Amino acid sequence: MSRSHYFVFSLAATLATTVGCAKEPAAKKGQDTPPPSAPVTLGDKQPTGKTMSAEVLLRSRAALSHYETLRAALAADDLKPVAGAAAQLAEVAKVASEKASGSAKASLEGIAKTSLELKNKSEIDAARLTFGEVSKHLVGLVAAEPELQRDRYVFECPMAKGYKKWVQTKTALENPYMGKKMLECGSKTDWSI
């Protein structure tokens, strides 16, 4: 097996193991994600085709996995995993940006830059504000690539400071900008930036 094949298999294995406010109805236990045969909810946009190379798509999926770790930590008011996940997100996005082009390249560069800023935040409110900047670039990336939208949902919180949208893998709303005090604040929205 060549080194490049090993890297792709290794990265794929990593991905497989990771991954006034209106209240959205809470999903029933065991129904956080739709069954594989269910239609994918993408807001107002529907997938139209790939816009990235296979390598950039694979690395972008890895970035989304690290982003989900950040989102879940902030939703749980837990700052401990943020620095590590932000550093990993920055590195994956930087490497992906080197192989990307057009709007994907710009989005991945933005994700890398703002993730490095997030890595250094020691207070949760500041981390949430910077997470919003990461989210802005990430929503742009995912909006442009239908393959990345599968089994992901975009939400918006009208009370969040700064950028108000975020992406998550669960249908049950878990707001990273408000955390436990207002976990279900927000609603599903479209993929526009």
Proportion of helical residues: 40-55%
Side-by-side strand order of the widest sheet:
2-1-3
Shape, per Cα inertia axes: globular
Total helix count? 6
Report the C-alpha radius of gyration, rounded: 16 Å
The separation of the N and C termini measures 41 Å
Q: Which segments are poorly predicted (pLDDT under 50) over 5 or more consecutive residues?
A: 1-19, 22-49
Most strands sheet:
3 strands, antiparallel
Assess the beta-strand content as a share of residues.
5-15%
Query: How many DSSP-defined strands?
Result: 3
Structural class: mainly alpha
User: Which H/E pattern describes the elements?
Assistant: HHHHHHEEE
Mean pLDDT score:
81
The gist of it:
This protein has 193 residues and is mainly α. It has helices spanning 3-17, 54-75, 82-99, 102-119, 124-144, 146-149; strands at residues 153-156, 165-168, 187-188.
Walk me through the structure:
This protein is mainly alpha-helical. It is 51% helix and 5% strand. The chain has six helices and three strands. It has helices spanning 3-17, 54-75, 82-99, 102-119, 124-144, 146-149, and strands spanning 153-156, 165-168, 187-188. Strands 2-1-3 form a three-stranded antiparallel β-sheet. Strand 1 and strand 2 form a beta hairpin. The longest helix has 22 residues, at 54-75. The N and C termini lie far apart (41 Å). The model is unreliable at 1-19 and 22-49 (pLDDT under 50).
